[in-house]
Amino acid sequence: MNVEQARAWIAAIAATVEAEAETLTRLDSAIGDGDHGANLKRGFAAVRTALEGFEAHTVGDVLTKTGATLISKVGGASGPLYGSAFRAMGKTLTSPDVTTEQFGDALDAGLAAIRKLGGAQPGDKTMVDAWLPAVAAFRKKGPQAAATAAEEAARATTDLQARKGRASYLGERSIGHQDPGATSTALIFRALA
Amino acid sequence: MKKFINDPGDVVAQALAGLAAAHPELRVDPDNQLVIRGDAPVRGKAGIVSGGGSGHEPLHGGFVGLGMLDAACAGEVFTSPVPDAILAATRAADGGAGVLHVVKNYTGDVLNFEMAAELAGDEGITVETVLVDDDVAVQDSTWTAGRRGTGATLIVEKVIGALAEEGASLKDVAATGRAVNERSGSFAVALTAATTPAAGQPGFDLPDDEMEVGVGIHGEPGRRRAKVTRASEIATLMVDAILEAKPAQGRAIVLLNGLGGTPLLELYLLYGEVATILAGRNIEIARSLVGNYVTSLDMAGASLTICHADDEILRLWDAPVRTPGLRWGL
Fold first, then answer.
1. Which of A46, A137, A163, B291 supports an S-S bond with A149, CB 3.0-4.6 Å?
2. By residue range, what is the domain housing residue A7?
3. Catalytic residues of B, which ones?
4. Which residues of A touch B221 (CB under 8 A)?
5. Ranges for the DhaL domain (chain A) (predicted)?
6. Which pTM does this prediction carry?
7. ipTM of this model?
8. CB contact under 8 A, A80 and B111
9. Between chains, do B111 and A117 touch, taking CB under 8 Å as contact?
């Protein structure tokens, strides 16, 4: 991945988040407070503006800027979580062109940042459930497999009982609803494929 | 959706502009969406900052002023504010004695306030945090995000606001805030869902003859669904849930709070039932408050908060306060 491809990835995320905002909000209304789609749409719109005219020398520059903008524009839980993930990824990618292996390491760093900040374990019905298999699939088979793995994992959160985030307040009643955070994670990996 | 709005994206900014117009004694920072006490920072006083998603008015911006908050940051509707805004509020409130963050226990609020506290620390501002988690409807176990912060937030903010006004140290103010939270329990029942301007439709479907028991202040569904029943039975259910989680006898501050869409006629009726039940449980209502204080937009429903108070808490509760949402003793 080079700097232009990194920009293209972020632009693709912004486009898919905008297109799917209503779906994310609908999922979040069922088990959260219904702001996930609107928040991410606002955040990535701000990222798009921030990246216009921004001079990026490395892939990391693009991702770090993305992360910082998400933190300062999104709010909620998804702002700090996705923001920290992109910043953590950005910090590891310090050249204009990065290998697939380096990008895999960066995805690992992003996942680690999310887990450290949010404290979620696999199976808690959060974005971690989609990130984990996506990163593993990326390492073995690349971006297309990562996107598919994230989508399958997001769907599989439907049967889980939430133990972190706002959905956890519902207890057993959270079962039967797909997690909005895992769903937006699948969008991010689909944009990479 | 029928609401007095211009554009769903600008609701919070335009509401703050209106608040500023109505209350010239306060300052509003439109860029960071802050409400700031007119004379802030008060030299030598521990600053108190709170905030969270908008839609709970008058919480928190309506509680900025003498005897309560120094600054409040308003996030988007039902979305916690961002670290930059919380940091700006913290700077505005810092009179050199440090700043206390009053944070309701929601993942987003906790994360953003934590980040802001770190940034403030880097600037040399001492920050303490009081986490409010009074909602007994949520099982408090290591497997959940823990209890939510709801109605007790008002009682915490009022009591510690008075203490800070007297010149108490940041550590003492924080300790008292934690004690008030520990002594408080809340429970809410909703009759309808809230409609956020961004979503444009109710957050959940609730049949006409059903209520959501143990609902949160964002309209997130609660413990269970049940058939709507008589007010006396709803009052019993609320009191039982709170006293089971926070058992005590003696004096209490009782807040019967409307969630935004319930008329005072019904709130007073419900309060009357609560008062009768508490008398039978050896709880003396030392102070009471009935009205819309910690709302959930247009959600019909009510939350009950019982704070088992001691002399000191009651003294601080009675101390003067001058804010848009709470005003007495002056």
1. A137
2. 3-192
3. 56, 218
4. 31, 170, 173
5. 4-193
6. 0.93
7. 0.88
8. yes
9. yes
